Amino acid sequence: MPYVIPPDEVFQQAPQPLENTQGAYKIPAFEHLTFTEREGMMSNYTNRPFPRKGLVYPEAVETNNIVKKVLVLIFRSIASPKYALDEFLRMSDYAFRNQYLQRRFYCNFSREIWDFTYHFTRKFGIKHDKAYRLGKMMAHIFQYEENYRFWVQDMFGQTTKQDLIDHPQRELTKMMEVFSRRMRAGVQFKFKAPIKILCFILKVPIIKRAWKFAWGQIDFSRLLLDEADRWWMLSSADYDLEDRNIEERFREHIDIYNRHQIKILRQQIINLNSNAAK
């Protein structure tokens, strides 16, 4: 099934073809590949005196570049931790360069996460540019990782903004307990580690002040599931929304769908009668 790509105007910059990826060299007049036990795969080109080892193509270069940047991040962070954030942002900017949207095209949840991340990191000393890029990266991850967004929205629904400000460790632990009970896909460990780290660092006064400040800058209601989000989640086999089993939730999912179809049909009949009267 073909997939749909958003139009160019929604992106921060027009996506570039993978052929333009740094490191993807181009050699004209490719003829064929040969294979030998000694040399492996070799690329042969018209009028070239020697074949070239392997075959470099854009998709391979793209993923290779990302892994190289991860390795640079690890090694440079170990050698000099102060560069960890710089390398991480450089890596994420490269990985997302063709997918970053203009801010207004992100969903309301993603924009609030962007703002929260910016204000939180800015308040405890991260420079504006880096804090902004961190916020954009977090918004982007949730924009395209829909299940994660739904799960986090549901977790926020278990608490209140004021409780997160006043009792962050207690509320984060409660949210994780609800998520662990409802999740059936076995991905709880992906959330336990960051929540555990967050609970620990929130003991640091400057971080706790930044946490309280950041919550004061956003609209908490935009972090919660709305009617549309809830409908899509009702059919999830991996997550027991509202602690209800899939059979019960799917019946409601179908009932809402059927009511919508009836509404559409009624409107079509009204339109047909209106046109006939003319």
Describe this structure in words.
The chain is mainly alpha-helical and 278 residues long. It has 2 domains: 7-100, no CATH class; 105-224 and 237-245, no CATH class. Helix content is 59%, strand content 5%. It has helices spanning 58-79, 84-95, 108-123, 128-144, 146-156, 161-166, 168-182, 188-201, 205-215, 227-234, 246-277, and strands at residues 30-36, 40-45, 52-53. Strands 1-2-3 form a 3-stranded antiparallel beta sheet, with no helix packed on it. Helix 1 runs antiparallel to helix 2 and helix 3 packs antiparallel against helix 9 (205-215). The protein starts with 29 loop residues before the first strand and ends with a helix. The model has no long low-confidence stretch (mean pLDDT 91).
